[in-house]
């Protein structure tokens, strides 16, 4: 069964993209395929640039759109391709219908009322279907 993880952070969408990069890096080190689902091409381009530059000593090899030979993909067309490891859902609108094929799904909650409300609905969606949910409050981290 898919494990759902919510991360509560302080900040805005840029903060969410930085956390997505950190989580992608961790998954990549564990040889887990990653799909970052974004709402639109502009956001896909932004997260792509962050993945190339968020660490000064190295980069995370990735591709926009889905390619089964690339372990990290960014996608805004709601097509998971062959990925099934980690889904980082940066879309605020909906939960992709294919989320359950992934081992783990990450939802990031940041300081915007619309996002908080949407993620609460999404939390209920997963909970009502019996998915195991973890909640990580990073606003209290030192």
Question: How would you describe the overall organization of this protein?
Answer:
With 142 residues, the protein is an alpha/beta fold. A seven-stranded parallel beta sheet has the order 3-4-2-5-6-1-7, with helices on both faces. The longest helix is centred in the first third of the chain and has 17 residues, at 13-29. The radius of gyration is 14 Å and the shape is globular. Helix content is 32%, strand content 22%. The protein has helices at residues 13-29, 41-53, 113-128, and strands spanning 3-8, 34-37, 63-64, 72-75, 86-89, 104-109, 133-137.
Report a brief summary of the structure.
Helices cover 32% and strands 22% of the residues. The protein is of the alpha/beta class and 142 residues long.
How confident is the prediction overall: mean pLDDT? 88
> What is the succession of H and E elements?
EHEHEEEEHE
Please compute the radius of gyration using only Cα atoms: 14 Å
What portion of the residues fall into strands of 2 or more residues? 15-25%
- Give, in spatial order, the strands making up the sheet with the most strands: 3-4-2-5-6-1-7
Helix/strand-derived class? alpha/beta
| Rough outline | globular
Assign a percent range to the helix content: 25-40%
Low-confidence stretches: none
- Strand elements, count: 7
**Largest β-sheet summary:** 7 strands, parallel
- Report the total helices: 3
Please specify the SSE layout and strand pairing.
Elements: E1 3-8, H1 13-29, E2 34-37, H2 41-53, E3 63-64, E4 72-75, E5 86-89, E6 104-109, H3 113-128, E7 133-137
Parallel strand pairs: 1-6, 1-7, 2-4, 2-5, 3-4, 5-6
Helix pairs in contact: 1-2
